[in-house]
Structure formats: C-alpha cells, structure tokens
Amino acid sequence: MAWSTMLCICRLRYNVVSASRIKTFLVEYSTSRTLVEVGKLETPKIQGKYDAGQLFLHRVFGYRGVILFPWSARVYDRDILANKKATKTPDSEVNTSNQIGREVKGRNHMYYQVLIDSRDCPHIRAQTEAVTFLGQQENSKSLYAIPGLDYAAHEDVLPYRTTEHQPLCHELFEKFLMPDPDKDPPFEARETLRAWQEKNHPWLELSDVHKETTENIRVTVTPFYMGCRESQSSTVFWWRYCIRLENLGELSVQLRERHWRIFSLSGTLETVRGRGVIGQEPVLSPQQPAFQYSSHISLQAPSGHMWGTFRMEREDGHTFDCRIPPFSLESKNEDNNLPTGGV
Fold first, then answer.
1. Are 292 and 162 within 8 A, CB to CB?
2. Mean pLDDT for each consecutive 10-residue tract of the chain (343 residues)?
3. For labelling, which of 24, 35, 61, 280 has a CA lying 20 to 30 Å from the CA of 11?
4. What percent helix, strand, coil does the chain show, rounded to 5?
5. With a threshold of 0.85, does the pTM exceed it?
C-alpha cells in the first residue's frame, strides 16, 4: 500500500488495524465532525529504532504521540515456550496451565517513552496517567502521576510526517522538544529532556515485559520499581505494573473478575480477589479489542513475585480463566535523589 495516505480527524473514531491494512485514521471530537488533515504516513521501520521527536499513531490505541527516548527491554513470551513444547510433545501431554516455575528465555526488544496528545486522551482505552512516582518527601506515602506519558512497543509505532509547527498538544512537548526543520524527524530533544531522563532514569526504566495468551486473550505485564519509604519500624518497597489485555479472536469477551497471588521475599503469600479491574469490567470486542491499566503494589521486602488469572466471559456465555504471566518485583539500589516529575 502507499504510505503517503492522508491522516484525517473527524468525530471520535479510530480504525487502527495491522499496518498492512491501514488506510485512514479518524479521531473523534465532540465539537466537530469536520475532517482535518493531520499528516502523511511513513513506512514503519522493520529494523533499527526511531529517534526522539518522531510523530506516530499508536497501532493498538490509535492516539497521536511523539517519541521521547528508547528503552531496550527483555520480553518473556510464554506463548513461544508453549509453541515449542507443542511441536515436541503430543497435545495430550502438553501442560501450559502451570508454567510458573519453568524457564522462559527473554529476548531484547525496543520500547519507547512517549507523550500522548491530550486531545486524544479522553477517547482511548488506556489510562493516560499510568506513569506514577512516589512523593518527594521521605515520609510521604502519596503518589503522583504525569498525565499523558506512556510506553509503546516498536511494532506499535506507525510514523507520520506533518507540516504543523506544534502537531502535538501536551504541556511537556515544547519543554522537551524543539523544532529543527533540517532533521528527520524535524524535532530534537532539549537539554531539559536529557536532564529529566537522567534524574528519573531508575523510576522510568522499562526492563522486563511478560506475555501470555489464553483462548485468544493476550495479557502483557510490565512492572516498574518506584522506590522505598522507610520508617522507624519498617521499610516499604513500591512497584507499579501496567497490564494490557488484547482480544485476538472474533468474539467479544468481558473481564469479570481478577485473582492475584502475591509472594514476598519475607515469606508471605497473599491472595487478592475482586470484581473487574480499577472499578471497570471492560469488554474486548473486535471493534475495541484492547484495554490497558496500571496499578500498584507494596511489600515489606525488597523483592517478590506476582501471578494470577482474570475470569473472562465470552459473548456466547462461555467463561474461562485467562492467565496473567508471573513476573518478578525487584528493587534497585537507590541514592539520595528522589524521583521528580518536574522539568
């Protein structure tokens, strides 16, 4: 297909599918149904990486974004392990329901720290305040978020070009990036972005990604260490974790319940059950196949593990437990610099 396809804006409707099938992108706004040209698609990179300042559309969630800087992460995909075992072992002997203790080899993969266009935030099925930090005071137990900051996998980046002077609406866009018409992309990082990345590197860094698919529902988990808080009686370690659910099938599926198992290095094993996630029971349909959210966990130990299941219900009434791939909660060495969202 021709990658010079125009990107257009109308009332809220993103039709984002595989790159080979994309024709036109439509963004919904409540105030106008007028089509507005945004830019022209470019050919996605199969190899290499995108530079800071690259404008893109998110393949899954459809929002407009801009790349700030890359992260090289280790991806642990349990589907690969299951497929390998299926090719070597008869189906009747393959047990993929209990792989918590089995070795899953990781592979390096490129991810990006990105800004989301604030005009698109109300219309995407992903939390736009998912990147959180601990409060700046040592005795503070509060969390605060940076709106419109996300992580995107390399294959989720659909690059485009525009002639707009400020093509993205975000309060940090001009603080982090400056125009350079002689470059491709025509923006480059300011010193404020480099300083902010260096200062907050331990809390922003994406290092491990875990994936597993159950009955066409793929769950991707990305944990982040946030730091610790000390008191006279204890030390509490904090993590956030981001979960994306994707429906790869043709039938709509709704998330009904969650079931977590949380193991701490201190020897405790906690079970958490509840309805839905973050107060919602999202439906994953062919039209809106993905949902993403973030949550937090604290332990009185420097490391632990989490795993669990989501109880899913298909539109035909069939229910099943969708596995959440087990992932580690690991702390990092800390210095006296506390994370900050300021620039």
1. no
2. 43 38 40 68 94 95 94 92 61 41 80 95 83 64 80 96 87 94 90 93 89 97 90 87 96 98 94 95 95 93 96 96 96 61 52
3. 280
4. 10, 45, 45
5. no
